[in-house]
Amino acid sequence: MASPLCQSTLVKYYPSVSPFSSKFLHTHKDYRQISHVGSSEYLHMFDVVAKTSKLGGSRSRRMRAMASLGGLLGGIFKGNDTGESTRQQYASVVGVINGLEAEMSALSDSELRDKTSLLKERAQQGESLDSLLPEAFAVVREASKRVLGLRPFDVQLIGGMVLHKGEIAEMRTGEGKTLVAILPAYLNALTGKGVHVVTVNDYLARRDCEWVGQVPRFLGLKVGLIQQNMTSEQRRENYLCDITYVTNSELGFDYLRDNLATETEEFSDNLQSVEELVLRTFNYCVIDEVDSILIDEARTPLIISGPAEKPSDQYYKAAKIAAAFERDIHYTVDEKQKTVLLMEQGYEDAEAILDVKDLYDPREQWASFVLNAIKAKELFLRDVNYIIRGKEVLIVDEFTGRVMQGRRWSDGLHQAVEAKESLPIQNETVTLASISYQNFFLQFPKLCGMTGTAATESTEFESIYKLKVTIVPTNKPMIRKNQGGGRIVVGNGGWTTGPTTWAKRQGLVGPKDRATDGGGLQLPTMDFVEMGFLDFDCAEQLK
Q1: C-alpha dihedral sign at 231, 235, 238, 244
Q2: How far is residue 177's CA from residue 198's CA, in Å, rounded to a whole number?
Q3: What's the whole-model pTM score?
Q4: Contact 517, 473 (CB under 8 A)
Q5: What is the pLDDT of residues 66-89, one digit of tens each?
């Protein structure tokens, strides 16, 4: 049986091979996973075992408007929050933990490790994790001192307590969030139900597992790591560890594969069997860079697709039509929504070229081919949204800039891009299972996260995920003065009154033809007549 990846002394390096290869779908090798970048117009979305109800249209719009206003006000009123109220709230518990430090320091390594077994027994006997928290945190602090040479500061203990409560901890950059995550992860792992620590990419997951993961391993817990190109057996073994480091995409796709196997076992012998399920029951999840995953990528769909119809030469014909058509004459483009719309001239010319009476004739459905070809031309650009490697179109992740090997756009869009580039067209796919990050993470009974920027999205976190945002104080007093953002309005090549006058008095702008940013750095000369305005952010000005 494969041992957990991070249990070995020398952690094996797994190359950056796509987790979406069909080899992970085991018995049905034609299955592929795809992640769609762009409009939901060509995504047939359906959530797998998602229990979240959907709001009605008007109510949803009201909620979004309230969330936007709330986020703005939250940024204004929480912008100067130094976290001192949080320090006072947890001061008594911090005092108890500090009081145990001398006792823990006197223990030998084996005696300190035995504390884990004793704490596990108390947890299994029904003692609450809250009552175990001071001793557990004191044990982790001492282990960190011995293994990493790092003693968690009091504010890091506070951050750990915030995460244990199922809240979002906003901690400034450099305050040690990676080490903070070990505290609640160790505590919640004492129940034996497992803990997931979610990061945004494979490198961070591997780094954190190899580095701070030494602490819980020293204390006798098993620490696992999920990486790309791992087999089903390796994944299951690592998910069964007390603490598992994994990326959001790996965790989401493993969930979809498991549910697809569960849903389809009764009527197909070609799919992954129930015995090959890799995930355990969800318990507690700590998300690093939580605003990126739960807000920025909240509606990003994770999709598993299977083979559909064979490719058609209709894609090549549609690509030639799209190349001949002109924007705003034959069609219009909404770049924000990533949609295109044929104009009357476009309909007439397309029907004439194809010698058909109706583009929407159900017997041929030329409309979908033409619209996808135009999208491929206008919205999906080579070396921006995708690259060409050999004779294959590879998608570039819009959030990370990384090539997503094995992923394909759905509903004929990928084939349209291949036709545009005059490449061989691969088989079309059909969506088998899909879920958004928002619906996926809502299934954890206990969810928390940490980031350096959460206060401005506090309303969204509370209204969507029921997660409170708590600002954790810094270890040392801040010497930076936050003055907020502003806009310098210009005209006729010179500065105007209003914000500019204030900015000049604050020493934030220079001569007429130059300006300085919030940190006092001169910006290059700009043509303000054409530009019309200049945004600046003076949040980083040092006093």
Answers
A1: positive
A2: 13
A3: 0.66
A4: no
A5: 444 444 444 444 456 778 999 999
